[in-house]
Write a sequence for this structure.
């Protein structure tokens, strides 16, 4: 169920998510250093649909592990994240530009990227803001560009406690119903 409070409070919610990731950036980077085989499989399929030396936006790049992997595949990657501490982690691992930016307010020119990789980050966007974020992604993606978007399965919006994510703070999550 969509929470109207999350739309009204998006600026505050955004700051809370940013602060939570700033607090856990070191630990997050240490515990996610190896890309799971399933993510590598999705990444390989994603990259195979891109032109050689494509420009890709990693929306919610975190500590930069996915960016670094794509760079090793010959992709030019720009990363964005809300968290400055996550971006500091990414700068230690990648060659591409990393910028603090909200995926609901992308400042890139139209048709800047052949692909967008949005893995394990879109679920921090309230459902009321999802259309805005997707519209921004569509705007910066070239026509016929590729979008990889991962979601968490569920039905509501909630603050997930540390038991699910193994972090010190709860994180806001929008959950989506799986439809095949």
């Amino acid at each position: 169920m969509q929470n109207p409070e999350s739309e009204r409070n998006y600026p505050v919610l955004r700051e809370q998510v940013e602060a939570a990731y700033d607090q856990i950036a070191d630990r997050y980077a240490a515990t996610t250093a190896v890309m799971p085989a399933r993510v590598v499989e999705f990444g390989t399929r994603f990259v195979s649909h891109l032109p050689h030396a494509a420009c890709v936006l990693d929306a919610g790049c975190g500590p930069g592990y996915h960016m670094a992997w794509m760079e090793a595949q010959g992709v030019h990657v720009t990363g964005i994240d809300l968290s400055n501490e996550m971006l500091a982690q990414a700068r230690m691992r990648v060659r591409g530009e990393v910028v603090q930016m909200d995926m609901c307010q992308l400042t890139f020119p139209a048709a800047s990227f052949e692909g967008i990789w949005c893995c394990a980050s879109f679920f921090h966007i309230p459902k009321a803001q999802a259309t805005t974020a997707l519209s921004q992604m569509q705007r910066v993606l070239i026509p016929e560009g590729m979008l990889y978007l991962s979601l968490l399965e569920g039905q509501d919006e909630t603050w997930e406690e540390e038991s699910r994510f193994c972090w010190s703070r709860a994180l806001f999550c929008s959950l989506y119903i799986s439809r095949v």
